[in-house]
Design goal:
7-stranded antiparallel β-sheet; alpha+beta; 29% helix; 146 residues; 7 strands; single chain
Length: 146
């Protein structure tokens, strides 16, 4: 089991950060190692089923997930298929009094393949930091420096 929790307060609104994270189809444009994203189907306005392909050098893996958009305060991801035993991920968006927003990010997962799990464990915190940083950079690109 590998987990990572992180909070960051950013100078953007809850709605802006929620919109950025919930726009799953745009992930390949800015997220490291995300090669493609395909929305397979939608259930109403708040639930979508997506396949993401992530890769680095010779390794490529496809992840199927259910994304629940409970906006503007929460995006929750449930793992459906791929190389994991399980994966749970959420983004919470907390409004601050000064108009900024605190992101509460959490991910918990385990690979089926023990060797891949051990390899990911070594680099995991750096990978997650870079991914969260990519969302922060995307917010800056979209909304500017406030």
């Amino acid at each position: 089991m590998t987990t990572h929790a992180e909070k960051r307060t950013l100078p953007y609104t809850q709605e802006q950060l929620y919109a950025l994270v919930s726009d799953v189809e745009k992930y390949p444009e800015f997220l490291p190692w995300c090669m493609s994203c395909r929305i397979k189907r939608r259930e109403g306005e708040n639930v979508l089923f997506a396949d993401l392909v992530v890769g680095y050098k010779m390794i490529r893996e496809k992840f199927g997930s259910k994304v629940t958009l409970d906006g503007p305060g929460l995006v929750h991801v449930e793992y459906l298929s791929g190389p994991m035993k399980y994966l749970s991920n959420h983004w919470k968006f907390i409004c601050e009094e000064d108009g900024s927003c605190t992101i509460d990010f959490f991910v918990d997962f385990e690979f089926k393949n023990r060797m891949l799990q051990n390899l990911m464990g070594v680099f995991f915190n750096e990978i997650v930091r870079r991914m969260v940083g990519a969302f922060e950079e995307r917010a800056y690109d979209l909304y500017g420096n406030k």
